[in-house]
Amino acid sequence: MSRSRLDVAVVGSGPAGSAAALVLARAGARVALVDKASFPRDKACGDIVGPRGLRVLSELGLDRPAGRDVGDVLVMGPTGRRVRLPSVEGLTYPGHGTAITRVEFDAFLRDAAVMAGAMPVRGRAEEPLWDGGRIDGYRLAGGQRIHADFVIGADGATSHVARSAGLVDEKKALWGFAVRSYVSTSVELPLIVFWEPAPWRAVPGYGWVFPGPGGGANVGFGLATLSDRTAGTRAARAFPHFLEHLSRHGFLAEAPDRSVGRPLGGWLKMGLIGTKPAAGRVLLIGDAAGLVNPLQGEGIAQALGSGRLAAEAIVGAPADAAGRYRTSLAAAHLPFHRVAATLQVVMAGRPRAVASLSRLLAVVGQLDAFAGGWSIFWNELLEGAPANLHRTVARLMTWAGQISTAPTSSAAWFADTLANGSRLRS
Ligand SMILES: Cc1cc2nc3c(=O)[nH]c(=O)nc-3n(C[C@H](O)[C@H](O)[C@H](O)COP(=O)(O)OP(=O)(O)OC[C@H]3O[C@@H](n4cnc5c(N)ncnc54)[C@H](O)[C@@H]3O)c2cc1C
């Protein structure tokens, strides 16, 4: 690639970076799509693209690659009680998600961006290049320099761009760590498991068994660690015990040690809090912006959506792209992230409280109205949900969350960081 100046350097070509590069390239921008990995590459994930992710793909005019449709979700509480959360078609999203491996999905998106005209560059962004007080590009490992008018940080939860641009407060960010493996056992419905390794001592997270795209299943376990980046190994250590728990409840056909391949782990940065999503000419998207849902760990839909919003802000309002992007993120994700992030801050260090809440959910979830409302609320599907009792319950949950989180420091952080956007839907 030539060393001449570009319009945009997108660092990271996961779902967020590829979506941004696709929109920019289609608008005629000169855009580099930089990734340290060579594609196709794997990524630790439950491999489920949710309904809003599918909506973004169809709005971008992309025929999604063939996956396995997944709808209703089974949740098992700590005592073994089960709840079925319905998945219902919305006014703006389908009534299902899709199971597809990240090897396939991420390569498909990156190919679409490259076909649209984005220039693929292999290399690790190592050192920011400064022009006066602003970042003007990156020097890649190996020495190549990329200069651009805008930099989009799409380099995942532990984003180097976010750190080097001074946009992340690591002590305030909400971290999680999750591991996953593949097993040959097949499952009909995606299963989520709230687990108490000891009675009334629940883990602040959950485990899962999700249908695999071609048979078999993706099995994993993740937990919230608040600001503690050293606690991730706890998830890896607990994983074998979690698999035994699954076997005891009949969800793994084979003994765990024979059925489980090598686990792959990864960080999640959740609920936006602690990361300023844009300043000057640097915009963060996807996990780099901390957009993972703090309640259920979904991040692909937010990655696709934020990639598109950042690209549209650069194309539509180059003089105030950061401000435009922050406002559209607030419109898309508040008040949900404020409520969900605060809930995580309050619960994560309290195993008894988590145990009480998950036991309660498993009981109240026997009511259809509550199960439907819970499904809409925690999947962040209220916007575009069809008018019915489930939506009313989800609205009540959101409203109660808004009222109870209004006086918190988290609410103040959102108001300060997202400025006017925070008033759009609160
Ligand atoms: C175990 C686990 C299970 C999950 N399950 C689900 C799920 O089922 N559904 C769901 O929606 N979400 C899930 N998530 C979250 C989801 O994986 C992320 O939200 C999603 O991958 C975010 O996409 P992204 O493009 O922002 O980042 P990523 O997909 O992480 O892509 C970042 C890219 O940046 C590149 N990169 C990093 N640093 C540099 C650098 N310095 N220079 C150049 N390139 C760099 C990386 O190679 C990578 O390709 C899960 C996460 C984990 C850890």
Please describe what this structure looks like.
The protein has helices spanning 15-26, 51-59, 102-116, 160-164, 233-248, 256-259, 300-316, 321-333, 336-347, 351-364, 368-378, 389-405, 409-418, and strands at residues 6-11, 31-35, 48-49, 68-70, 73-76, 82-85, 97-99, 119-122, 125-131, 134-140, 145-153, 174-183, 191-193, 205-211, 217-226, 264-270, 278-279, 282-284. The relative contact order is 0.16. The protein has a domain at 6-69 and 96-171 and 271-333: FAD/NAD(P)-binding domain, CATH 3.50.50.60. Strands 1, 2, 8, 9, 10, 11, 17 and 18 form an eight-stranded mixed sheet that branches. A seven-stranded mixed sheet has the order 6-5-13-14-15-12-16. Strands 3-7-4 form a three-stranded antiparallel sheet. The chain is globular. The longest helix has 17 residues, at 300-316. Helix 2 (51-59) runs parallel beside helix 7 and helix 7 (300-316) runs antiparallel to helix 8 (321-333). It is built from 13 helices and 18 strands. The chain has 426 residues and is an alpha/beta fold. The termini are far apart. It is 36% helix and 23% strand. Strand 10 and strand 11 form a beta hairpin.
Number of helices: 13
What can be said about the biggest beta sheet? 8 strands, mixed
Query: In whole angstroms, how far apart are the ends?
Result: 45 Å
The CATH architecture of the domain at 6-69 and 96-171 and 271-333 can be given as 3-Layer(bba) Sandwich
